[in-house]
């Protein structure tokens, strides 16, 4: 049996396990198994690499950057982004890829309109790095928002009407609002969001986060992270099966 899986911490809720179980069933794939490897520390990944028949695995929070020292090579995208969410085992080598960027690119691009020129990215972790990469590719100027102000980052405290209205795309890359803490939302002045805004949340559970609900109530276009997850999963499957161009 070919072994696949997901590494992360506290990931019993995993989308990936149920997604691949359904995929294997629907496509009559009988030689593959997808498991969840819940690791309390990244160095436990060495035991995962010893799994018999291991072809590859996905990587989620909080190990998208921490996995890199355990790999032999990085794809050009993963190297540029500085984060890995897909690992391929090929010819004895551990090769890191990033398919988050593919998923984000192909799920946000159809929603972009000519007035969507500037963005705010909430968070600065491994998932956010794929978002930065694609916004750069799309030539969308953006600012990072984090808890503390730096020369290049806004802090949540300083966000005002002018900043919000001058940044028509807001992407939530933080875990705030994820199940079960569904009443939480990033601390934004939502009253300044309007119909010119696009709010994109990488969270998929719940489907309508408080962040998206607040935007929707003010007329904004909204998008959750489900399509991005599906697209990145399918791209990972292509990589594992050597179907990428």
Task: Give descriptors for this structure.
oxidoreductase, 245 residues, Aminoacid_DH-like_N_sf, NADP binding, alpha/beta, single chain, 2 domains, Shikimate dehydrogenase, 22% strand, 12 strands, NAD(P)-bd_dom_sf, 6-stranded mixed beta sheet, Rossmann fold
Outline:
The chain is α/β, with parallel strands linked by helices. It has eight helices and twelve strands. It folds into two domains: 2-97, Leucine Dehydrogenase, chain A, domain 1 (Rossmann fold, 3-Layer(aba) Sandwich), CATH 3.40.50.10860; 102-225, NAD(P)-binding Rossmann-like Domain (Rossmann fold, 3-Layer(aba) Sandwich), CATH 3.40.50.
Could you explain how this protein is built, in words?
Keywords: Amino-acid biosynthesis, Aromatic amino acid biosynthesis, Oxidoreductase. Pfam families: Shikimate_dh_N. One of its GO terms (cellular component) is cytosol. This protein is 30% helix and 22% strand. With 245 residues, it is α/β, with parallel strands linked by helices. It has two domains: 2-97, Leucine Dehydrogenase, chain A, domain 1 (Rossmann fold); 102-225, Rossmann fold, CATH 3.40.50.720. The strands form two sheets. It has a six-stranded mixed sheet. It has a six-stranded parallel sheet with strand order 9-8-7-10-11-12, sandwiched between helices. Helix 4 (100-108) packs across helix 5 (126-137). The chain is elongated, with a radius of gyration of 18 Å.
């Amino acid at each position: 049996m070919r072994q696949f899986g997901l590494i992360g911490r506290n990931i019993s809720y995993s989308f990936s396990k149920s997604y691949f179980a359904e995929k294997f069933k629907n496509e009559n794939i009988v030689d593959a198994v997808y498991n969840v490897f819940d690791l309390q520390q990244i160095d436990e990944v060495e035991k995962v690499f010893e799994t018999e028949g291991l072809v590859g695995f996905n990587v989620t929070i909080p190990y998208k950057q921490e996995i890199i020292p355990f790999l032999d090579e990085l794809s050009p995208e993963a190297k540029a982004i500085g984060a890995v969410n897909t690992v391929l085992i090929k010819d004895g080598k551990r090769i890191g890829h990033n398919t988050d960027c593919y998923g984000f690119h192909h799920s946000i691009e159809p929603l972009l309109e000519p007035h969507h020129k500037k963005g705010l990215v909430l968070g600065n972790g491994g998932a956010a790095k794929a978002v930065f990469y694609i916004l750069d590719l799309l030539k969308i100027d953006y600012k990072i928002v984090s808890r503390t102000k730096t020369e290049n980052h806004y802090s949540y405290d300083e966000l005002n009407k002018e900043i919000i209205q001058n940044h028509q795309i807001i992407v939530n890359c933080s875990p705030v609002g994820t199940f079960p803490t569904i009443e939480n939302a990033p601390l934004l002045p939502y009253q300044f969001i309007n119909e010119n805004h696009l709010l994109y949340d990488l969270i998929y559970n719940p489907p309508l986060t408080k962040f998206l609900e607040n935007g929707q109530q003010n007329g904004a276009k909204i998008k959750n992270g489900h399509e991005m997850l599906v697209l990145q999963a399918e791209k990972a499957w292509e990589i594992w099966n050597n179907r990428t161009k």
